[in-house]
Amino acid sequence: MTNVSTDHPAGIPYIELTDEGRKISFRKDCLGELKILRKVNESDWETLIQRTNPPYVDQEAFPRGTKLTYAIELELHNEKKEYELEVRL
């Protein structure tokens, strides 16, 4: 199950479950820099990567039933946007 909470009308970003892990992408080309944070179940937020461009693949393995929440901070044209993605494995 995936759940996306975003104020962007095109529903970006999105997350895919792939053989390599969870792939975070944007539905349109995104040339801004991202900061991606992750929360496992109800733990504290941890920064996965800063100053990167999409797509990003989180390859860390987790047991079935784990709830992962990703916070994506995007800076583009001196404007900051924040998105949240949730997936339950």
Averaging pLDDT over every residue, what do you get?
Answer: 83
Shape: globular
Classify the beta-strand content into a percent band.
Answer: over 45%
Helix-strand sequence: EEEEEEEE
User: Could you state the oligomeric state of the chains shown?
Assistant: single chain
Which keywords apply here?
89 residues, five-stranded antiparallel β-sheet, three-stranded antiparallel β-sheet, 8 strands, 56% strand
What does the model show?
There is one protein chain. The protein is mostly beta strands and 89 residues long. The protein is 0% helix and 56% strand. It contains no helices and 8 strands. It has a 5-stranded antiparallel beta sheet, with no helix packed on it. Strands 2-3-6 form a 3-stranded antiparallel beta sheet, with no helix packed on it. A hairpin with a 4-residue loop joins strand 2 and strand 3. The termini are close together.
